[in-house]
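Deviation from plan, reported transparently: magnesium ion complex.
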Amino acid sequence: METLILKTDENSINKAAEIIKNGGLVAMPTETVYGLGADARNGASVKNIFKAKGRPSDNPLIVHIAEAKDAEIYAKEVPPLFYELTERFSPGPLTIILKKSDLIPMETSGGLDTVGLRIPANKTAREIIKRAGTAIAAPSANLSGSPSPTNAKRCIEDLMGKVDAIVDGGECAVGVESTVISLAESVPTLFRPGFVTYEELKEVTKELKIHSGVLEKLEEGEKVSSPGLKYKHYSPNSDVVLVKGNKEEYCSFVNSKKADGVLALCFDEDEESLTVPHISYGKAHDGISQAKNIFELLRKTDELKAKTVYTHCPDDKGVSLAVYNRLLRAAGFQVIKL
Ligand code: TXA
Ligand code: MG
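Because the crystal trials were delayed, the predicted structure below was used instead.
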């Protein structure tokens, strides 16, 4: 299939919307990561997303809407807490799970009776949704298992020839996927940490559980309400190992591992003490900078032909919790505590 490369001008946005309307697939920028979009109401189109990505069919897709009130169309019931959350955090990097309406086909919900709704802040994404006149189902625009793309170049690497169009909207502002919270459980539950933090959400929800799969490996065959929790994700070709320790401990450990193909994915502060090849993914206690860089740098480790990537583990507070969650998956839960 020929893949059109579009920009973010009027004509391009109209073209992208038309492709979605006609049942096609478009990779597009959002403020978090690039998404691979199709008409969320069209089961046959959504099936093609799974095919293009190689994604397991039981993993539900996030449904992107232009306005909070559109939730009334796609959810069975919209509780007041939904609007309290969207008033504070939307448009933006927050996905809220509700019971779905009949307009959402099983392909989109991965067979579940719920739907994750998100109102993206990215202007191009919202314009495409509005002009397509539907909701857009969009997982991250990468091949299943590899790091999420934060620019069009990475979408092209993964999806050229497999989708109808790729919209080049530059670099994503946030860099990690949206926070996912479910209001379809008995207590509001955090399924995936993101730029909207646990601490911020709790100010609105009062009660908020963290799903055990956020920071722990699920048991083989364990049934989960958010299937994305159970898959290995975000991995480059190299072996990623998370290393927990302070600057001195981390640097002396990694320096002792010096060998062909060893790379340190470190913090700015570590750089002066490392004698092995290294790249920094941000400041030690700045989750926002770490989030912006992490996926792009995981891909870079492949270009640098790294075999083992010793990654300095971020803390588990604020936006760093999101980075920690992604790195645990990239590392297949291999963690060394010093
Ligand atoms: O920032 C984002 O959320 C990006 C951009 C494109 O919007 N999208 C994204 O989609 O990250 P994806 O498919 O890569 O991740 C969706 C996650 C998965 O872990 C999935 O299991 C969970 O959200 N999810 C989606 N709908 C759900 C539902 N109805 N119930 C439980 N989990 C759901
Ligand atoms: Mg993804």
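The mean pLDDT is 95. We consider this an acceptable substitute for the interim report.
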